[in-house]
Amino acid sequence: MARIAETTASTHVSIYDTTLRDGTQGEGVSITARDKIRIAKRLDELGVDFIEGGWPGSNPKDAEFFQRARETEWRHAVITAFGATRRAKLDPEADGSVRALLDSGAAVCTIFGKSWTLHVEEVLRIRLDENLRMIEETVAYLTQNGRRVIYDAEHFFDGYTADAGYAIETLRAAQRGGAEVLVLCDTNGGSLPWQVEAAVSEVGRALEHPLGIHTHNDTDCAVANSLAAVRAGARHVQGTVNGLGERCGNANLSVVIPNLELKLGLRCLPEGRLVEIGETSRFVAEVTNHTLDERMAYVGRSAFAHKAGVHVSAMRRHGASYQHVDPAVVGNTMRVLVSELSGRANVLSKAEELGEALAEGVEDAAVRAIKEAESRGMSYEGAEASVALLLRRRQPDHQTLFEILDYKAEVGRRQGTDTFAEATVKLRAGQDVMHTVAEGNGPVAALDAALRKALTPLFPALEHIHLTDYKVRILDSTGGTEAVTRVLIDFSDLHGSWSTVGASPNIIEASLDAVVDGIEWGLLKTGESRVELDPTDVLVRSVRGRPSDPPPPPSRSHTPDKQ
Are 216 and 250 in contact (CB under 8 A)? Predict the structure, then answer.
């Protein structure tokens, strides 16, 4: 691999990912060595230049990672090992943590040293000149043993503010030892962009050596600080996918990289790889078990979501009117939200997105229905299946698959037994009328079971449709027991997932509306034809008892079994 660019005029910015080391220092982040390899492979496919695997010798997990990394073929990235300068009064070869860097087998070693006199004198409690020797000797030892070295100047900006001359001398020590890039670290995350830009510019003039930047997000400026450093000449940027990291996190590479490529015209990734940044971001969120921020720039689900009718109307005429970049270039998509703020343009765009060809006048009727429903507590933003059904039901040729004629749900407790729930549903599907009864751990589960008993003989695909999540929100807590309840339910089958919504002062009614929408949309989506019942069968059928194949329980704490 080519070394880091020797001049600040280069249009290439080297991307150094530290998700597997600095990112795992974030609260609630813990990943196995196997998952670290999975993430590293995805980052290698994305095309980052360096992947910091961890601190060899600090824990068995990192030792296992470097063992696996030596057995893995890497297409683009270089695996790096992280560590510290030698300890005071020890030669580098006598320091176990320094030797562990060599033993890791990593071609690149990144070591950090102290830049701030406060840390040297009050934390390490050594002389300033001893700190300089520690830096130079450690870097020299590693380079003499055939390793490329990146030097992280810890707390550089605080140190530069306190004593600029000494902070620069620490960089010169690393430079004399043979470090190929000097990384200025905003370790406490307290610097602001103009401070970073000024300091990087001054250091660049003083040293004429390749510089890098490593920022933390304690002022919510980590991305801006990274861009400011690049503007000042840095050509090496460190950060983590999705901004994972200690305290408020590190510079978010999912945002830094698109900004560098699309806004500053610099090259970070191999040609054609930027489109993979969104999928990489989602992959890392999944593996680290962290929910991706929907409002994250570029890669978040809401990054290109449009709600206001005026915006959507303009977007239909020109895609650039309310989007700063084409979402496709970062692996994202434009979304149109339907709500009480919607106009005809929102409905038409949503219909096109869903593949619905609306008859004349349907969009106006749909807009009125949406506004009226949202005034009663509905919210269609996260329930696109309910939106699709609302549009279809207003088409002149629409025929509903089934119709609820009446229902009843009871909850009680018999002496000496646990509580029980029983639901009765009477519905019509075509010419057939079915009357079923089922039990469940709660009234919503019982209603769902009763619906399935009636409909599964007609629609066998229902066996594969499962309720996977159930969320309840009380819209006005001051209303007490008369408050409107909004229910959002997620469903899935063999081919995907969808969500529906219901709202009512009666939680059972709200839940049933969402369940009916979820089942109907799932059946419509499969395109399966209705199975005709035997004409000799009794049109009104009663079936009591528990269902033989109840749906699996929802995955979260707010479940139908408790409602």
Answer: yes
Which CATH number do you get for residue 206? 3.20.20.70
Of the candidates 357, 355, 380, 354, the one whose C-alpha atom is nearest the C-alpha of residue 367 is 380
Same domain, 356 and 448: no
Strands 485-493 and 466-474, by their bridges, are: antiparallel
Say how far residue 88 (Cα) sits from the centre of its chain. Answer: 42
Last residue of a domain, one of 287, 321, 341: 287
Query: Where in the sequence is the domain holding 540, given as residue range(s)?
Result: 403-562
Closest CA to 222 of 202, 252, 201, 245: 252
Burial 55-87 (b: 16+ CB within 10 A, else e): bbbeeeebbbbbeebeeeeeebbbbbbbbbbbb
CA 400 to chain CA centroid, nearest Å? 37
Long-range contacts of residues 496-502, Cβ cutoff 8 Å, at least 24 apart:
496/525, 497/468, 498/384, 498/385, 498/522, 498/525, 499/382, 499/383, 499/384, 499/385, 499/386, 500/383, 500/385, 500/386, 500/389, 501/378, 501/379, 501/380, 501/382, 501/383, 501/386, 502/378
Token representation of residue 433:
């009328």
**Per-residue buried b or exposed e for 191-216, using 16+ beta carbons within 10 Å of the residue's own CB:** bebebbbebbbebbeeeebbbbbbbb
Place of tokens 């695997």: 53
* Rg, Å, the chain Cα set: 30
- Evaluate whether residue 298 is within a structural domain: no
pLDDT at residue 104 in the model: 95
Whole-model pTM: value is 0.72
Cα distances from 207 to residues 6, 172, 173, 194, in angstroms, run 12, 8, 11, 20
Q: How far apart are alpha carbons 461 and 457 in whole angstroms?
A: 10
Q: Which amino acid is at 190?
A: G
Q: What is the mean pLDDT of each run of 10 residues along the chain (563 residues)?
A: 45 97 92 94 97 91 93 96 95 94 96 96 95 98 98 98 97 98 98 98 96 98 98 98 96 98 97 95 92 90 65 56 84 65 57 65 67 66 76 77 91 79 91 90 91 91 90 72 82 88 88 91 75 50 38 39 41
